Amino acid sequence: MDAEKTILITNDDGIGAEGLGALVRALDGIGRIVIVAPEQEQSASSHAITLDKPLRIKEHSPLKFSVSGTPTDCVILAVHGILTHKPDLVVSGINHGPNMGEDVTYSGTVAAAIEGCILGINSMAVSLATWEGASFDGAASAARQLARSLAAMKGGKARLWNVNVPAIPASAIKGIKVTRLGSRIYNDIIVRKKDPRGKDYFWIGGAEPGWNTGENTDFAAVSAGYVSITPLRLDFTDHEGIVELEEQGLAWNPEITTR
Ligand code: MN
Fold it and tell me: What's the CATH code of the domain at 177?
């Protein structure tokens, strides 16, 4: 990537997050870096877009901005409001916490990359696969290597890549594996307790979930010490489901009513 290329960096942990700083340092020199990130932490905000209140942009320095909204808001405002031309690559992260399997649907980190891809830009989400305190060095190194290779890729269609990096020292990372999304196993997902006034309350996210250790999955790669990169698609259409419904021969009968 030459120096004229522009890389938009965003995240869902907020403008002050350690992982964002690590990503900015990692991509230094690969292109012109523009940072547009949420003012506040927006983890698990998914692909939310703010339509019911005004958004404010705060300029921290000429190439660093925070937005009073979600990761998706940041990408939209960056591309249509702040930048004068489309960036060449969107990189979202480095998230503090994994985004694998079904969790990509809750993730604000991945959603920012999804928005980039919708806007026709190659986009990558990068996550450090631990919630514990850990060094971002390995993930930063992975982000730099991947950003360089992916930015050099030719192809017309905007791509979306989801990257997860094991929380081990960079020198211990065994390599990069191209993977598919795995699947979580949830146990006791709801915690039910009584509040001080004797009323029930609920807390989502009980026992630590497990993973199905299927072959070539993101979970399998990360737990074996590899960087996982999963290409994602935005077309949710279930093509087998189309055939199944067509075979079902769905018929409309105006005489059947609900009462
Ligand atoms: Mn987050």
Answer: 3.40.1210.10
